[in-house]
Specification:
heterotrimer, A alpha/beta, B alpha/beta, C alpha/beta, A: alpha/beta, Rossmann fold, six-stranded mixed β-sheet, four-stranded antiparallel β-sheet, 10 strands, 33% helix, C: alpha/beta, abc type-2 transporter like fold, 2 domains, four-stranded mixed β-sheet, 17 helices, 67% helix
Chain lengths: 241, 398, 387
């Protein structure tokens, strides 16, 4: 999924400060998402991945800072939302509707044409699940539906949060294929993750720690993670021995 | 427009799939109208448990007894024949009123002295008190009339002559609009409107909390939808259902509870439409800013009876302090209930309710205006919160 | 035993913390009853309905018609606010609700009387508001009596009767009316206490609806359930904590009602509190019953309110049970609210005897036993959601 892109900035975040309740979660974050790249936001639970993604998306009001999408301040115009796709970490599909109804309602919400339905159903191989109720779906299929909903409006920016954390392998490969094809069309993707397993699908990693960000290449990130992890078992092992 | 209709379509599906919402929107209004209708079905208070304490046992006193025991106002309790018994029975609610005829009643009458009859009634509950007082006065009036006629005839007057004396100045008392003194005509329309008001609000205020609690609201925020598409799309099904309920309940009231509905159908429909819209846009606004659905249910339901009582619908309006009137005018109910009474009970035309119509229209405009205050972003929400009472309530640190 | 007591106390205390932290419930319990007291107290501030707005249209302008007008003007409870010159104007004023009673004295009223021809005065009452209409009708009846007797006496005097005889003939029986228990026919005495207690009752039911679901609906329930703590202690502590809160809030309300608003309290205060406690237990058992099978606390709240709100109207407080259809009256008799609202009036206004009140105590007790027993059954039968 390596993609260098033509360096056009899609999302530009400057000095983002965000508080949840009274806790300052993001403390002056600068981040750029380039056209055609897949940027991963890495952080452990509670470090503010989701907070960052939701702020970048414009659904959360921010305390201070400046976010621009395609050079437009997101506080000023919501035109960018036409070209946006979102998969959230928490399940957020309409639990009372079945798969087909969910897709159709998302089509309405995203003002996408009817024909798109067939395309996303086919790509994510959802034909067999169309009439199933959401609560009965496996996590993997649920995530495929969520991604299908996100792709309905042919987004140019896709924001996905923990989409393949712990799902079945078949769904995993379908989702990765779809994402690869999506990026090849020159679109960009911002994704939150907390597991290094698929880090090599990413172009860059934004490591989120203590409210600020460091940019690494996937290899650097993986090495760093290994180093950090190495500390723990060693100590234990020493103690055990 | 198409998008808005599509949103409305899915809102209907949400309602149909949510048992509670379905009950609130479609079943509860008629059920409560039926329940309340059966409470007030008798419309008037008759057969008041009553005591006739005749200490005189004369021909004249029996005449008084006759006047009170005929007709359907009173149900005489024959066991109570002394003042003491009457006192206990009144205290225990066995009777709600009584007449005491003194021992020297006939004696004084024959001596052409004035005599007194005592009427007592239970004023601890004024529904009894007011009615018994009225019935007692009517009874005594009747007795005095009969007695005077008999007296004059005993003096040798011809019936037509005595009639002439008695009816020289005849005051004819006419009660307009509600000659039967029916409590249905007085109360029931208001009851229906409070049902529509509260259940309407309860239904529509669930719409946004449902999305927020299901975590789906974020997709609306992240969507390119215009705010008006969300507001009108989500309100439309409730407005249609609300108007349908309005028509259904009025039909039910008129057909089965015998509520008097006169006046122009067009005006009634206009009022219903405005009333429904005013409720729904107000409800949408509440829905946007409400903390969660449990909270709304609690507050809204608690407000039902106060809204009814302070509106001036039962206790005369100009006897209520201005502050309270001002508060009551914040609800569509106050405007509607007054206008509806004018149209259906008093049979008045548009000019007489123009002010109320204007009030409702202003409420609609305010409701829409307030609904448009919502922004398509939100305060960041924490993922995990403490839950108290298993609800969706997040206590602040104390 | 000591351990049990300590456990009980721990959960008893925890319940107060819980309620305090539930901001919505806190507001509901602390603010709503007081707010409603303020609201209703103000609404019925005038308390008695006197001075019914009346208009007179004297189309005759004779000495006789003026005499009638002055009779009306002197009538108790009628307040003549306008004089008009036509029937149309009176009609308009009634339509607009400016006056409630309209009197029309016809043309040639005096002349007809001189000629000894019967004549009529029209008394119109606006019946659209019953509170007004029913009071007006009594006031009008009284003044009508005066007018008619006066005219009759005049005729008899002309025929040579003595004044006293004539009067006795026409108004032989004087009518004295005594409103018992509420001598001034005070509307506020009748309604305010009931309305305020109704709001209190609804607020408390909301709390009682949390008894079981408020525990089993939380994530921490799994710990309680898997612990060795006897659950009945937990729930007993909850119930007692709730009852303490119910009684504390109602004591404040009673204090304000009787001391500040001076609503009548003819019975011993302790007697009233005991009766209220009886009701509180019955009401709490109803909430508990519902909380034992509701899916979540929001549903539990809705269901209890679906019962508690109409219960006030069904209780016979605003519309007598005797005037309801028999079937309905028999059913609602078993709602604790019915006994409470009936009983409260009997106690505060009439100081009813213990023997009389015992029927209500019996109802409360029976209701509470059945409801608590059923909640226990449901609690055992319905599997709890342990996330």
């Amino acid at each position: 999924m390596k993609n260098t892109g033509d360096k056009g900035v899609v999302i530009s975040i400057r000095g983002l400060v965000q508080k949840v309740g009274k806790r300052t979660v993001l403390n002056g974050v600068d981040l750029d998402l380039y056209r055609g790249e897949c940027l991963g936001v890495f952080g452990l639970r509670g470090t503010g991945k989701t907070t960052l993604l939701h702020a970048a998306l414009g659904v959360d009001r921010i305390k201070s800072g400046n976010i621009e999408i395609w050079g437009q301040n997101i506080a000023k115009s919501q035109a960018y939302k036409k070209k946006l796709g979102l998969v959230t970490q928490q399940p957020s599909l309409f639990a009372d509707l079945n798969v087909a109804e969910n897709l159709d309602l998302f089509r309405v919400i995203k003002k996408a044409p009817f024909e798109r339905l067939e395309d996303v159903i086919q790509r994510l191989q959802l034909e067999d699940y169309l009439h199933e109720a959401l609560p009965s779906l496996q996590v993997g299929v649920y995530q495929r539906v969520a991604l299908a909903c996100a792709l309905l409006n042919r987004p140019e920016i896709l924001i996905i949060d923990e989409i393949i954390r712990d799902i079945d392998l078949e769904s995993r490969s379908i989702i990765l294929q779809v994402l690869e094809a999506y990026l090849e069309e020159g679109n960009s993707c911002l994704c939150g993750f907390s597991n290094m397993e698929h880090v090599h699908y990413l172009d860059r990693v934004a490591w989120l720690d203590d409210g600020s960000i460091h940019i690494y290449s996937p290899d650097e990130a993986e090495n760093l993670w290994r180093e950090l992890n190495a500390v723990i078992p060693k100590k234990r092992g020493e103690q055990d021995a | 427009m198409r998008t808005m209709l599509n949103i409305a379509n899915y809102e209907v599906r949400h309602i149909l799939k949510d048992r509670v919402a379905f009950a609130i929107v479609f079943l509860a209004p008629l059920f409560y109208a039926f329940l309340m209708g059966s409470v007030y079905f008798s419309a008037a208070i008759n057969d008041v448990p009553f005591a006739l304490v005749d200490l005189d046992h004369s021909l004249a006193s029996r005449e008084v007894v006759n006047v009170f025991s005929s007709g359907q106002h009173f149900k005489i309790n024959p066991e109570i024949d002394s003042y003491e018994k009457m006192e206990t029975a009144m205290r225990e609610g066995i009777i709600r009123g009584g007449i005491v005829i003194p021992e020297d009643f006939s004696q004084k009458l024959s001596q052409k002295q004035g005599t007194e009859v005592l009427a007592v009634y239970d004023a601890s509950n004024l529904l009894w008190g007011y009615n018994v007082r009225k019935f007692a006065y009517e009874g005594m009036d009747e007795f005095n009339r009969r007695y005077a006629a008999a007296y004059l005839q005993s003096m040798g007057m011809h019936p037509t002559q005595s009639d002439e004396v008695l009816n020289m100045v005849r005051c004819s008392i006419m009660t307009w609009y509600n000659p039967t003194y029916s409590y249905i005509n007085f109360l029931y329309a208001g009851v229906i409107f409070i049902i529509l008001h509260q259940l309407g609000l309860l239904g529509i205020t669930l719409t946004i909390p449902r999305e927020k609690e299901g975590n789906t609201w974020i997709h609306y925020l992240a969507s390119p939808l215009e705010r008006w598409q969300i507001i009108f799309g989500k309100s439309l099904p409730y407005i249609i259902a609300g108007f349908f309920n309005y028509a259904l309940l009025l039909w039910f009231a008129h057909q089965f509870i015998l509520l008097k509905i006169e006046g122009s159908i067009l005006l009634i429909l206009l009022l219903g439409f405005l009333y429904t819209c005013a409720i729904m846009f107000l409800g949408f606004f509440i829905s946007l800013y409400a903390e969660n659905s449990l909270q709304i249910s609690r507050y809204l339901i608690l407000l039902s009876i106060p809204i009814f009582m302070i509106s001036g619908y039962t206790w005369p309006r100009y006897r209520i302090p201005g502050v309270i009137i001002a508060i009551s005018e914040l609800t569509p109910f106050t405007w509607m209930a007054e206008a509806f009474r004018k149209v259906t009970i008093k049979n008045l035309g548009f000019p007489d309710i123009a002010f109320n119509v204007l009030g409702l229209i202003i409420m609609i405009i305010i409701g829409i205006g307030l609904s448009f205050t919502f922004r398509k972003d939100r305060e960041p929400v924490a993922g995990d919160k403490i839950r108290v009472n298993g609800g969706l309530e997040y206590p602040r640190r104390v | 035993m000591n351990r049990m007591l300590r456990l009980f106390y721990a959960f008893f205390r925890r319940e107060f913390t819980y309620i305090w932290r539930d901001r919505g419930l806190r507001v509901v319990l602390l603010v709503m009853p007081l707010l409603s007291l303020l609201l209703f107290g103000l609404t019925y501030r005038t308390q008695v309905l006197t001075d019914i707005p009346t208009a007179i249209a004297d189309l005759d302008h004779s000495a006789q018609s003026r005499a009638v007008a002055s009779d009306i003007k002197q009538a108790e409870n009628l307040d003549v606010v306008a004089y008009y010159n036509s029937y149309e104007e009176i009609k308009r004023a009634i339509e607009k609700g400016e006056v409630v009673v309209g009197v029309v004295i016809p043309e040639k009223f005096g002349q007809q009387q001189e000629l000894r021809r019967p004549t009529r005065v029209a008394m119109i009452i606006d019946g659209s508001n019953m509170v007004y209409a029913i009071n007006s009708s009594v006031a009008v009846l009284q003044v009508v009596r005066t007018i008619e007797v006066k005219s009759g006496v005049k005729v008899l005097l002309a025929q040579g009767e003595h004044m006293q005889d004539a009067k006795n003939a026409l108004m032989a029986v004087n009518f004295v009316d005594e409103p018992w228990f509420n001598p001034t026919i005070n509307y506020a005495f009748f309604l305010v206490l009931g309305l305020v207690l109704n709001i209190w009752q609804q607020c408390c039911t909301l709390l009682s609806a949390m008894t079981i679901i408020g525990e089993t609906g939380t994530r921490s329930w799994v710990h309680l359930k898997s612990s060795s703590i006897p659950l009945f202690i937990v729930f007993l502590a909850k119930i007692l904590a709730h009852l303490v809160i119910f009684m504390a809030t109602v004591a404040v309300l009673y204090g304000l009602c009787f001391e500040v608003l001076h609503l009548p309290l003819r019975c011993d205060f302790g007697k009233l509190m005991l009766f209220t406690l009886g009701f509180a237990v019955a009401m709490h058992s109803l909430g508990t019953l519902i909380s034992s099978f509701a899916r979540n606390s929001a549903d539990a709240s809705r269901i209890v309110m679906a019962i508690a709100v109409p219960a006030f109207v069904l209780s016979g407080f605003t519309w007598p049970l005797e005037a309801m259809p028999q079937v309905l009256a028999q059913v609602v008799k078993w709602l604790p609210q019915t006994g409470f609202f009936q009983g409260v009036i009997f106690l505060t206004m009439k100081d009813a005897s213990w023997t009389y009140m015992s029927q209500y105590y019996f109802q409360f007790l029976l209701f509470a036993l059945i409801a608590y027993a059923l909640s226990m059954v449901f609690f055992r039968l319905i599997p709890q959601n342990t996330r």
